[in-house]
Amino acid sequence: LRINDTYAVVGTEQRLLPIAPVVLRDIPFVPAQAIFGLLGAWVRFDEEEGVLRVSSVLSAVKMQRGGGIVRLVANATGPVQAETRHLTNPERMVIDLRNAVFRQPDQETVVNDAGVLRVRIAQFQSRPAITRIVLDLGQPVDVRVADSTTSFDVTIEVRPRPIVARAP
């Protein structure tokens, strides 16, 4: 960023700012909404509440299958918080990604592997921003959610729960 310049450089790309940074009383002022947007966040000013809402964006949710495991990797532009819960009738696992905006059409993928019948992904609510991932289950599963140590990605691993044989 340069003072009085309406362009910012992100990586090697020039991007237009809505207003140029300025100096007031020896302090640089930069439009917060523009900066968060340049960094990949979803940003909206709520005029009614007078609040600038900033959330991470899920740019993709990629699925990998193999070895009896289903792995979902949610690529985020910033930090998100994952909350899981099991629901019944029908059996499903819900993973809510708080502070995450999913700006793609709702997704539904048939899986039929590792106890997962189908995966659904959609924006659940906008205030606060929550993206919901639902795993429709065909059998009991173990789910592990892990944050990346090198990015804002969230990995969800699903394995079928071992069937315990009962004595006659």
In summary, what is this structure?
4% of the residues lie in helices and 60% in strands.
Describe this structure in words.
By secondary structure, this protein is mainly beta. It is built from one helix and 15 strands, in the order ββββαβββββββββββ. It has one helix spanning 32-38; strands spanning 7-10, 13-16, 22-24, 27-29, 42-46, 51-66, 69-76, 81-87, 92-98, 100-101, 107-113, 116-126, 129-137, 141-147, 154-160. Strands 5, 6, 7, 10, 14 and 15 form a six-stranded mixed sheet that branches. A five-stranded antiparallel sheet has the order 8-9-13-12-11, with no helix packed on it. A two-stranded antiparallel sheet has the order 1-2.
Order of helices and strands: EEEEHEEEEEEEEEEE
Return the structural class: mainly beta
Shape: elongated
Distance between the termini: 73 Å
Based on CA atoms alone, the radius of gyration comes out at: 21 Å
Largest sheet: 6 strands, mixed
Fraction in beta strands? over 45%
Number of H/I helices? 1
The share of residues in helices is under 10%
Overall strand count: 15
Query: Could you name the ranges where pLDDT drops below 50 across 5 or more consecutive residues?
Result: none
Chain-averaged pLDDT: 89
